Amino acid sequence: MQVLDATVRAVGGRPAIEATRTLVIEGEGEAFILGQGEHPGRGNLKYRVTGYRHALDLAHARWRKDKIYTPLWNATSLDPIPETTALDGTIAFDPAGDGTASRAPEAVARDRRAELWHSPLGLLQAALAPGATVSNHRRVGPHDLVDIRAPAAPSSPSRSTPPPSSP
Q1: In whole angstroms, what is the distance from residue 114 CA to residue 90 CA?
Q2: DSSP assigned state of 140
Q3: pLDDT by residue for the chain (167 residues), tens digit each?
Q4: For the CA atoms of 133, 138, 139, 145, what is the dihedral angle to 10 degrees?
Q5: Which residues contact 113 (CB under 8 A, 6 or more apart)?
Q6: Are 91 and 103 within 8 A, CB to CB?
């Protein structure tokens, strides 16, 4: 617990961590298609990423990630490629530009739920959640490590559905 307590203090304290409901990450950079090159033996295909925005609603276990890829290799088209992915509780989906969305498989939803904990803030909220345990303190080189067992990510708030119309 000393490692967790020191980390919590370093990022603003427990009240600030628990009070944070949303996290927005914005930026740009490069992305690669691993294992894919224009020719055998060449490096991976590279894209310029712009318009990157990952908005996480930590309180309701949902997020949306928008980014625009532009090929930096001799692609068929060099036009920017927008991509949006999202999660709402236990449902993963991919919104399209025309307002429709396609639901992603459960395995994708499971991976996207894990992304809620892929930031220091999300990880600390999980570690401080009721029912979480912190154990197995150890040092690896200059680093203190612990194992965190967190309860499942919360589902999105329940939504009431009107009853079907009677015939």
Answers
A1: 11
A2: E
A3: 788 999 999 999 999 999 999 999 999 999 987 767 666 766 778 899 999 999 999 999 999 999 999 998 888 888 999 999 999 999 999 999 898 999 999 999 999 999 998 888 999 999 999 999 999 999 999 999 999 998 765 444 333 333 333 33
A4: -20
A5: 61, 87, 90, 153
A6: yes
Q: Where are the domains of the chain?
A: 2-149
- Calculate helix-pair angle for 2-10, 120-128, nearest 10 degrees: 130
Cα–Cα distance list, 22 to 14, 18, 54, 65 (Å) = 16, 11, 10, 13
User: What tokens were used for 162?
Assistant: 């009107």
Range list of H helices, 1-134:
2-10, 14-19, 106-114, 120-128
Q: How many CA atoms lie within 13 A of 153 on its CB side?
A: 28
